[in-house]
Design goal:
mainly beta; Thrombin, subunit H; 6-stranded antiparallel beta barrel; 6 strands; globular
């Protein structure tokens, strides 16, 4: 992997809560860091669930190693949220992280 392959800007976001106008807590995503990444869409699928057509796209993002990146974060890429399903320290060398993400059904919008 070379630095030139990191050609996509992504934002790592952390889930938090804020109070709305009625004093109730609602989910809000706060920017954690903007980093350069290599984005590799791996697969896409469409299916029928809950009486609606659904779609899901799996994307692997490779970024420089940074501590604190966990699956409870999400990735915002091209304005679309992607839920992180796993974080892999490539070869255990703390040089690169691979983020396995999905956009669609479970893309980090809620939960």
């Amino acid at each position: 992997m070379t630095a030139g392959e990191l050609d996509q800007r992504i934002t790592l976001q952390r889930r938090g809560t804020v109070k709305d106008g009625y004093g109730q807590e609602v989910v809000a995503w706060e920017d954690e860091a903007a980093v350069w990444a290599k984005a590799e869409p791996l697969q896409g699928r469409e299916f029928f669930a809950a009486a609606q057509a659904q779609s899901e796209v799996t994307v692997r993002f490779t970024i420089r190693y940074r501590p604190g990146v966990v699956p409870t974060l999400r990735v915002l890429w091209r304005g679309q949220p992607h839920g992180i399903s796993s974080v892999i320290d490539v070869k255990g060398k703390r040089q690169w992280l691979q983020l396995m993400c999905s956009q669609g059904v479970r893309d980090g919008r809620g939960e």
